[in-house]
Specification:
511 residues, alpha/beta, Rossmann fold, two-stranded antiparallel sheet, 16 helices, 15 strands, 39% helix, globular, Alpha/beta hydrolase, signal, Serine_prot/Carboxylest_S33, AB_hydrolase_fold
């Protein structure tokens, strides 16, 4: 659920994360630190042995969970240089353990430690937590690991919510937006202690192999959501012989360019918005009437009105069209949130942006004026390093045409011609290409037919690219497919992880 969406124009890529987290209370543990199993350093280069043979000292952190820090090389191409710290959490199997299961919630920039600490049942469910030691980790640059640091809360509020003074689309507006992105990039460079060039998905995947080894596992078992599918696919491509049981849910197509990611997501959110609107029109309290087309046109008019005349919240923030789009996007991740979108849009129509800001704050993990993590900073850092700046004018023109035709409601606020990484202090090193992971064992790829954040076509593409990919289709709405109440999907995943049962072929699971 991360990110500066493209409508905010401060980031060039609208790729979002995957999981809404629910934060239960947890008591503090009282047991003494424990050590991990013997590290697996087989076949490791001599210069990496100090990392691969380190002992993990676990200490109690929340409830029965244990936490630890693991050292990794900042630069995997120069392992003799500076080290960084990776934060991890372990929820021990409640039954007989089959080993470790690493889980990544997406982003890029989401905290795996927070996911397991606060939302274990939502992330993996009872079956997997019974049979595996579930491991959450903060990738490099994220959360409790050596982290990207940019703005304080006041500066982040201005970055995310301040409205340019110039009219949208003008040269002056464009200058304001790019200046804002430049200020953000400069703050990241100043405050991140030289780590920005090394915040890449490739290096994060290499960190995962290090975690596999120090946890004592011969192979890596992995459940990755949303961006976590790209991280997992990258690992499988680098270490195919180390792939254990892999499930990639809410897939990102690794061969897709930044502009194609942005356009495809916009079309996905427009489609999800139409599905929401069809439902809204059948419920009491819906602020729209008529056909879906009528309602979408009225929503477009409401967005334009807010763009012209922003609404003041009780905390002084102004709701412009960009923040309104963020609130809409936040609610489209799950059908369970549609009711809040109805309340939000009804409020906006009456001049009250309160619920819209609640949705936007939830999206950005902002509580009582404070940001609970560095997900926005890490999100930008990864994307600016992973996506090369090779977009042509012809691609921009084609993208704008597609947006107007297939996402007309969102298109005015989805700025594909703004490069938020233009001022980033490190040059991108990522390559957008297909991933085959030749030699890896079976990899399950899950796609949901009307997933707005990671559209279904990406899951189809990734499953086809992978030499051992198997596609599980969930017919329905919302982002990701596992543990969403579809027994067909859940049984396939649980049977695979627990019993090693591999589907005979692709599976289609009706809602």
């Amino acid at each position: 659920m991360l990110t500066v969406v493209a409508g905010l124009a401060a980031a060039s890529i609208a790729l979002t994360g995957c999981l809404f987290t629910f934060i239960p209370d947890g008591g503090e543990g009282t047991s003494q630190p424990t050590s991990s199993a013997s590290p697996d350093a087989e076949g490791v280069a001599p210069e990496l042995l100090p990392y691969y043979t380190q002992t993990v000292d676990w200490s109690p952190c929340t409830g029965s969970d244990e936490c630890a820090k693991v050292e990794a090389p900042l630069d995997w191409n120069d392992p003799g240089g500076r080290a960084i710290s990776l934060s991890i959490i372990r929820h021990a199997a409640t039954g007989s353990s089959q080993g470790s299961l690493l889980v990544n919630p997406g982003g890029p920039g989401a905290s795996g430690v927070e996911l397991i600490r606060d939302s274990l049942d939502y992330a993996v469910g009872d079956e997997l937590s019974k049979h595996y030691d579930v491991i959450g980790f903060d990738p490099r640059g994220v959360g409790g690991s050596t982290a990207v640091k940019c703005f304080d809360a006041k500066q982040m509020d201005a970055f995310l919510f301040d409205i340019p003074s110039a009219p949208r689309g003008t040269a002056a507006w464009r200058t304001e937006v790019l200046d804002s992105a430049k200020s953000f990039a400069q703050a990241c460079e100043k405050n991140s202690d030289g780590i920005l060039p090394y915040i890449t998905t490739e290096f994060a995947a290499r960190d995962m192999d290090l975690l596999r080894a120090v946890l004592g596992d011969k192979k890596l078992n992995y459940l990755g959501y949303s961006y976590g599918t790209f991280l997992g696919a990258t690992y499988a491509n680098l270490y195919p012989e180390k792939v254990g049981k892999f499930v990639l849910d809410g897939a990102l197509d690794p061969s897709t360019s930044s502009i194609d990611v942005s356009v495809t997501q916009a079309v996905g959110f427009e489609s999800a918005l139409r599905a929401y609107m069809a439902s809204c029109l059948k419920t009491r309290g819906c602020p729209f009437a008529g056909s879906v087309d009528d309602a979408m046109a009225d929503l477009g008019a409401l967005l334009a009105k807010v763009d012209r005349s922003p609404l003041r919240n009780n905390d002084g923030r102004m709701l412009g069209a960009d923040a309104m789009v963020t609130s809409i996007v936040a609610a489209l991740y799950s059908q369970d949130s549609w009711q809040y979108l109805t309340q939000s849009l009804a409020g906006i129509a009456k001049g009250d942006p309160g619920i819209a800001f609640q949705l936007a704050d939830f999206y950005f993990n902002r509580v009582d004026g404070k940001y609970q993590d560095n997900s926005q900073e890490a999100f930008t850092a990864y994307n600016c390093m992973d996506y090369p700046d090779d977009t042509t004018d012809a691609q921009i023109a084609a993208a704008q045409k597609t947006l107007k035709e297939k996402a007309p409601t969102i298109a005015p606020y989805w700025s594909v011609d703004i490069d938020g990484c233009e001022s980033w202090p490190a040059e991108a090193t990522g390559v957008r290409e297909q991933i085959h992971a030749a030699g890896a064992g079976p990899i399950l790829v899950i796609g949901t037919t009307n997933d707005p954040a990671t559209p279904y076509a990406w899951a189809q593409s990734l499953a086809k690219q992978l030499d051992s990919g198997i596609l599980i289709t969930r017919v329905g709405e919302g982002h990701t497919g596992f543990n969403k109440g579809n027994s067909c999907v859940d049984d396939a995943v649980n049977d695979y992880f627990v019993d090693g049962t591999v589907p005979d072929g692709d599976i289609r699971c009706e809602g």
